[in-house]
Design goal:
With 107 residues, the chain is mainly β. It has a single domain, classed as Nucleic acid-binding proteins (OB fold (Dihydrolipoamide Acetyltransferase, E2P), Beta Barrel). The mean pLDDT is 96. The strands form three sheets. Strands 3-2-1-4-7 form a five-stranded antiparallel sheet. The protein has a two-stranded antiparallel ribbon with strand order 5-6. The protein has two helices and nine strands; from the N terminus they run αβββαββββββ.
């Protein structure tokens, strides 16, 4: 269990996917550039088996915006996409239904 104060440290934001690139030699990973309104960040995400590049571009997703950066497959990852496994074991991204300005805080 975490306290409400600890939960409030997590910065959940809406981001628009701006670019998606393959990572050479990696079958499951994409390098994704996201728009957070006042800044752009990069994410490495293992969602390639579940989404094409075209399916991702322009999608409004929910990210953890204040995650400590990590290097994955030699590429810097500055945020984390939120996703859940569906009943078939495929990842599905947490998205917002209507148009929301990039960078909007999720409350």
């Amino acid at each position: 269990m975490i306290s409400f104060q600890e939960f409030q440290k997590i910065d959940l934001r809406v981001a628009k996917i701006a670019e998606v690139e393959d990572i050479p030699g990696k079958d499951k990973l994409y390098k994704i550039k996201i728009d957070l309104g006042d800044e752009q960040k990069q994410i490495v995400a293992g969602i390639k088996p579940f989404y094409t590049k075209d399916n991702l571009i322009g999608k409004n997703v929910v990210v953890v915006a204040n995650l400590e950066p990590a290097t994955i497959a030699g590429v810097k990852s500055e945020c984390m996409l939120l996703a859940a496994k569906d009943v078939n074991g495929n990842y599905t991204l947490v998205t917002v239904e209507s148009e929301v300005k990039p960078g909007t805080k999720v409350e």
